[in-house]
Design goal:
single chain, 210 residues, 13% strand, globular, Rossmann fold, Arc Repressor Mutant, subunit A, 5 strands, alpha/beta, five-stranded parallel beta sheet
């Protein structure tokens, strides 16, 4: 039996995931968490094989949560679930140790297929992500400017583009405002932009913010 935990801040999403996954006789849903601290408690108390992790978790960014889980619980296979298209986060998630990446608008049978796949220690990627990975390997040095950003820089860029102030970004990422300012400066330098307005324009143009 494959033991599965869910980490998502939307109750209706968790309920839907439980209902879909429970249709498979090979899967046993063992618990749910709505934010980072409750997830860490759940992982400590409830052994599991697969974690379904939302990439936008309250209290800590999903990529950061993924790295913590991979470090503390290396045997757990983490399947990232996201409302964001593959081209925004899939490669970053896979590089950070995710066993697979699935968008929330995927067909229900895809979820069961993905859980079974990662539980067998196989990567689960859609044809679109496979194509992106191939392209990334070929053009890694010639990609879009935002692809050169570190995870923290990328998070900072997206939050700036969404209209957040540096103090708000600092709170959200659990960093000091001074550290966020450093990340902002790196974003401007790496992407050859001048100010927040240009960051916002770039992010909107490339579909990096909602």
């Amino acid at each position: 039996m494959i033991r599965v935990l869910i980490a998502d801040d939307h109750a209706i999403v968790r309920k839907g995931l439980v209902q879909i996954a429970s249709e498979s006789r090979e899967i046993e849903m063992r618990g749910e968490a709505s934010e980072y601290s409750s997830l860490m408690r759940l992982l400590k108390d409830e052994p599991c094989d697969v974690l379904l992790l939302d990439i936008a978790m309250p209290g800590k960014n999903g990529i950061d949560v993924l790295k913590v889980v991979r470090e503390q619980y290396p045997r757990i296979q983490v399947l990232i679930l996201s409302m964001y298209p593959e081209d925004q986060y899939a490669i970053r998630a896979l590089k950070a140790g995710a066993a697979g990446y699935l968008t929330k608008d995927s067909a229900p049978e895809r979820l069961v297929e993905a859980i079974l796949s990662v539980a067998r220690k196989k990567r689960y990627i859609t044809p679109k992500v496979a194509e992106m990975l191939a392209t990334h390997l070929v053009t890694e040095t010639d990609g879009e400017p935002h692809e050169s950003l570190s995870d923290r820089e990328f998070q900072t860029m997206r939050l700036i583009a969404s209209g957040k102030q540096l103090s708000q970004i600092a709170d959200e990422l659990s960093l000091s405002p001074k550290t966020v300012s450093v990340y902002r400066a790196r974003v401007l330098e790496k992407m050859q932009l001048k100010n927040n307005a240009e960051i916002t324009h770039y992010a909107i143009k490339h579909g990096l913010v909602e």
